[in-house]
Amino acid sequence: MISAVFLTHTAAPSGAELATLRLLTALARDGRVRASVLLTADGPLVALLEARDIPVTVWRNDFDSRSLTIAGSGPLRLLGGARDLMRLGRGLGAEVSAAGADVVVAQSTKALLMGAIAARRAGVPLVWQVHDRIAADYFGGPLAFGLRVLGWLAVRGVVANSRSTLRTLFTPGRRAVVAYPGLEPGRAVEREAQRAPDAVRIVMVGRLTPWKGQDVLLRALPLLRHRPAAVTLVGGAFFDEEEFGDRLRALAAELDVPVEFAGHVDDPTDHFAAADIAVHASVTPEPFGQVVVEAMRAGCAVIAADAGGPTEIVRDGRDGVLVTPGAPAALAAALDRLIADPALRARLAESGRARAADFGIEETARVVTGLLATVLRRDADSTAVPR
Ligand code: GLC
Where along the sequence do coiled-coil regions lie (predicted)? Predict the structure, then answer.
């Protein structure tokens, strides 16, 4: 049995953390990896883990992770934040040793920095489960470069949430796999057939943050020939981004488009089941895009931004439609085509449902278990070699 500590710096229930929650649940069911979670912040994730009997420890500390935000941190601030994270990592190393872990799995870039120190202290290998594309368009050039180099130096293995994410990393000499964040076997979804053009309901699910591109959908709405009956934005603002939600509300009012803001939910299935068309519109390439699979599984006709993870999920014109990211006119054209044609929507939705079944969490757990086993075997091998 492999004992793994999953390390993360946030307990917000955002996409990466919810994906990890499902992975840990599947690992526990499978039984080959005994996983626990080490968190450096308290929050809703803690109760979600506890409800699933996953051991979790919150490591109390006074580090303010906002001092290390990607946008607008000057080099000095970044260095200061990095120093704090490394200090935190030393304490965490003791915790990892006490837990008797064989391996540390870092869940974020901040966890990578802390984990590098913690794993070294505890004398165990570090694996980086990467949920973000480590690219200039997301982190800025210098930071992206630094993180790639750090990742390469510090880790023995990498788990990327898509091929697109993997392509942004340096991995020579490292074990690297793609483990798509799978879904759990879901309950059967009750839904209506695709509605007539004048009754179409549109939903968009995602954290309210500028790169998710909710504003692209809002700007597409006035361009439509066919006005939908309802548009719902599902998602909360985390990580101090509340201000973007206010901007979206102001934009909706200014464009005079009736949009309902439904807030955050842990499971968006019911929102998808109530909609005909689901829109994904991220303006920077989406690393994976769990909402795309969730929407397909719930029987929506999906329109997704043609970049990153969604291009590995959606076969354009078959399981959904891919559109140029950040272009309200392109999104409006796709929406008009789908709204006008319920038969097309039904076809896309049917094929999308079948495609969604390719993304199961058991497969994710199988790939992650394989990677951990390989990393540890290699570790065992290298200590077996006489020096
Ligand atoms: C992050 C990514 C998202 C992905 C999720 C799970 O939230 O932004 O694309 O689906 O992690 O790996």
Answer: none
Query: End-to-end distance of the chain based on CA atoms, in angstroms?
Result: 28
Question: Which class would CATH give 197-356?
Answer: alpha beta
Amino acid of residue 155: V
Look at the block and give the residue holding tokens 């049917």.
Answer: 350
Per-residue confidence at 238, pLDDT binned at 50, 70, 90?
A: confident
- Residue 162 CA: nearest ligand 1 atom is 12
Give yes or no for residue 154 CB within 6 A of ligand 1.
no
Cβ contact 23:121 at 8 Å: no
DSSP β-ladder status, 301-305 and 277-279 = parallel
2-184+360-383 belongs to CATH 3.40.50.2000: yes
Q: What is the pLDDT of residues 326-353, one digit of tens each?
A: 999 999 999 999 999 999 999 999 999 9
To the question of pTM greater than 0.90 for the whole model, the response is yes
Give domain limits for the chain: 2-184+360-383, 197-356
Q: Tell me: the pLDDT tens digits for 136-172?
A: 999 999 999 999 999 999 999 999 999 999 999 999 9
| Nearest CA residue ID for atom 6, ligand 1 | 16
Pick from 375, 291, 363, 303: which is nearest to 339 by CA? Answer: 303
By DSSP bridging, strand 157-160 and strand 175-178 are: parallel
181 lines ligand 1 (CB under 6 A): yes
